[in-house]
Each structure stands twice: as C-alpha cells, then as structure tokens.
Amino acid sequence: MTELLLDPARALVLSLKPRFAQAILAGTKTVEVRRVMPRITIPTLALLYASGSARALVGTCVVRSVARYSTDELWHLHGVDTALSKTEFDAYLEGRDCGVALLLECPEPLATPIPLHTLRQAHDFRPPQKLACVCHAQRKRLLAA
C-alpha cells in the first residue's frame, strides 16, 4: 500500500465482529455494509478492530470507494462480497431505504494483534461502536503499540 495515495490526515477505525474482521483479512469480504455514510476521503486507510471476545486491533485495509445504494441494489451488486446472509443483511438494514457499501482492498493482518487493554493503557483508546476517524498521529501510535 502506498502511503502517499491515502488520506494523509486521517484513518478510519472499523469496529467489526471477529468473523467479519477475519473475512476481510482473508480477502473473502471485500464490501463492508453500513447504515450511515462515513465522511472520509477516498482512498483511506482503515484499522480493523475486532470486537466481542477478540477485543483487539487485528489489521488494516484500504477503503477504495464508498457508495450509497437502495437496499435491493446494494444486495444485488455486493451481497456475495459482504459475508452476510440475506437474513443478516435485511435485519441490519431493517427500516432503511438505502445502505452504504465500503469497498475494501489491500487487507493486511498485523503480525501480532494488539489487545484492547494495551491500546487503552498506551493510548487511552476507546473502540468505536461502529466506526470513527483518527488523526495520522493517533493512527501511528495505535499501530506501534
């Protein structure tokens, strides 16, 4: 991944269930579905935080593009790449007319996942509920923990 091509000011932190974080790192999940459009510059680096029992920063990827679609169109275009069943997809976007697709590429697992307690002690890190942006300096500190 070429650092100069990415947003130099910010990175995105994605909070994911462990199975989705692992699917992104394995390259089998290339689209992340969200209910809200993130305000990011494309392309941008995403830090992958696995929630649940994992509770660790596990890798990175690049958000290549972001697009809003009707829920039917989003499923038709990207359903197979979301690692979601149709039932999970429908439940997540229930009550919504539209959903957001983050197209992901260049997944890179960290050599050693960084557990939440280390991130909290070293950097007062609080994992986001869904996603958050961090500045360049904070991103470097988190990945160096």
Strand content: 35-45%
The largest sheet, given as strand count, sense and whether it forms a barrel, is: 6 strands, mixed
Query: CA-to-CA gap between the ends?
Result: 20 Å
Task: Count all strands and give the number.
Answer: 6
Descriptive notes:
The structure is a single chain. The chain has 145 residues and is α+β, with helices and mostly antiparallel strands. It contains five helices and six strands, in the order βαβββααβαβα. It has helices at residues 18-26, 71-78, 86-92, 116-123, 136-144, and strands at 10-16, 31-34, 44-50, 56-70, 98-115, 131-135. It has a six-stranded mixed β-sheet. Strand 3 (44-50) and strand 4 form a beta hairpin. The longest helix has 9 residues, at 18-26. The protein is globular. 30% of the residues are buried. The mean pLDDT is 92.
Primary descriptors:
6 strands; 6-stranded mixed β-sheet; alpha+beta
SSE inventory with pairings:
Blueprint: E1 10-16, H1 18-26, E2 31-34, E3 44-50, E4 56-70, H2 71-78, H3 86-92, E5 98-115, H4 116-123, E6 131-135, H5 136-144
Parallel strand pairs: 1-3
Antiparallel strand pairs: 1-6, 2-5, 3-4, 4-5
Quick description:
The protein is an alpha+beta fold and 145 residues long. Helix content is 28%, strand content 39%.
